[in-house]
Design goal:
Radius of gyration: 17 Å
Structural class: alpha/beta
Number of helices: 8
CATH superfamily: Uracil-DNA glycosylase-like domain
Number of domains: 1
Largest sheet: 6 strands, mixed
Low-confidence stretches: none
Strand order of the largest sheet: 1-3-2-4-6-5
CATH topology: Uracil-DNA Glycosylase, subunit E
Mean pLDDT: 93
Distance between the termini: 26 Å
Shape: globular
């Protein structure tokens, strides 16, 4: 009888596979663009527990080609630190990779990202993001309530969701920042209850 494969080795195999698949998706997105349309790629751990999702990239993200680059990324990093959540357990991306593509293409790319990362929780930022997520053809998914900010919802049998206001729209107004934080901070208790691998 063959010896059991250690858990660490299994995880490393999944990680290598996820990295290869994320790189392949990035290459496909690059081929879909051109000199004027550069894709904004997801960033973070390819097997993250937490999947941050915004609707579309902002100019700083487009310039760098990386999701959550700039002000929103800094605000999220500070929020994660306040909640004592390891930023290395997080992956962030946008529904739209170029900001202008056909929604069907964007949905296909986002579905692939979700299948690759296999998060435990999606943080859906803003009503447009929730609407986009609700339109995905994702196996066994349930519709999310866009008005249930800060409340954990079931997205699939293995993925929960947390709806927050749009981080980009929350940065320049104190009341909006407070509303975002009040919803986002539900991530802290959720994180604390997660079993370690």
């Amino acid at each position: 009888m063959p010896a059991a494969v250690p858990t660490d080795e299994i995880y490393e195999r999944y990680l290598r596979k996820a990295i290869a698949e994320i790189n392949e998706l990035g290459e496909e997105l690059a081929r879909a663009g051109d000199e004027l349309r550069v894709p904004v790629l997801g960033s973070g751990h390819p097997l993250a527990d937490v999947f941050l999702l915004k609707f579309s990239p902002k100019p700083a993200e487009i310039e760098e080609g990386v999701a959550f680059f700039g002000r929103s990324g800094q605000a999220i990093l500070k929020s994660l630190q306040r909640l004592r959540i390891d930023p290395l357990a997080v992956y962030g991306t946008n529904c739209l990779k170029f900001g202008t593509e056909d929604p069907e293409d964007a949905a296909r790319w986002l579905t692939r990202e979700l299948h690759i990362v296999q998060p435990r929780l999606i943080v859906a930022m803003g009503a447009r993001t929730v609407a986009f997520l609700n339109e995905l053809t994702f196996p066994l998914s349930q519709r999310l309530d866009p008005d249930a900010e800060g409340v954990l919802q079931r997205f699939t049998g293995t993925i929960e969701a947390l709806v927050t206001p749009d981080i980009d729209e929350s940065l320049d107004d104190q009341a909006a920042k407070t509303r975002f934080w009040n919803a986002f901070r539900a991530l802290g208790p959720w994180w604390a209850e997660q079993p370690p691998y």
